[in-house]
Each structure stands twice: as C-alpha cells, then as structure tokens.
Amino acid sequence: MPDQCSHLDQVDASATPSAAGCEDCLRVGGRWVHLRMCRTCGHIGCCDSSPAKHASGHATGGHPIVSSYEPGEDWWWCYVDEIALSVDLPDYSHP
Ligand SMILES: [Zn+2]
Ligand SMILES: [Zn+2]
Ligand SMILES: [Zn+2]
User: Each residue of 16-61: pLDDT tens digit?
Assistant: First the structure.
C-alpha cells in the first residue's frame, strides 16, 4: 500500500463542479447518498455508498483524484492509491 499519491499532477486547480448532483444519476433518474467531485475535470459523481458508485467508475476511467462535495467536508481521496490526500486548494462545496 503506497503512502503517497503519484497522481497529483492530474489535478486541475481550475476544475469546477459539472453539476449540482451526480451528473450520471441525474441523467438516468438515479439516487445517490453522497457526492464526490473529480479534481481533474470537475465531474460530480456519487460515492461508494450509493447504488451506482459513479465516482469510482469515473476514477477508473483515468481521473483518480476526488474531493468530497458534501457541505462542510473538504477531504480528498485517490481511488487508485486508496489514500486520503492533503491538498491546499479552494473548497467548492459551498457555491
Ligand atoms: Zn494517487
Ligand atoms: Zn451517480
Ligand atoms: Zn474527471
């Protein structure tokens, strides 16, 4: 298990949230539990507690780093390394 993330170069500091909810669930009328934001492109996806797990599905497509999109949460996560990250970038949870 790595203790460092090697994907930080994929973070785009100018990425902004793509939708107010999981964009894949919104498209098909699905439900989610919690939201995660892709820090490469701004894709909003649902967490692994949600039925469709769109955030991890999106991560598998090559954008491994997300941050929480829940109000009051500002943690980051790398789905490939499975570690929490500490990144000093603006929090988009409260538009
Ligand atoms: Zn990583
Ligand atoms: Zn979803
Ligand atoms: Zn992405």
Answer: 999 999 999 999 999 999 999 999 999 999 999 999 999 999 999 9
Of all ligands present, the nearest one to the C-alpha of 40 is 3
DSSP 43: -
Q: Is the pTM of this model over 0.85?
A: yes
Q: What is each CA distance from 32 to 4, 20, 80, in whole angstroms?
A: 29, 12, 22
Q: Is residue 71 part of a domain?
A: yes
Point out the ligand nearest to the CA of residue 66.
3
Ligand 1 centroid to Cα of residue 6, in Å, is 5
In this structure, is residue 22 part of a structural domain?
yes
Domain limits for position 77: 8-85
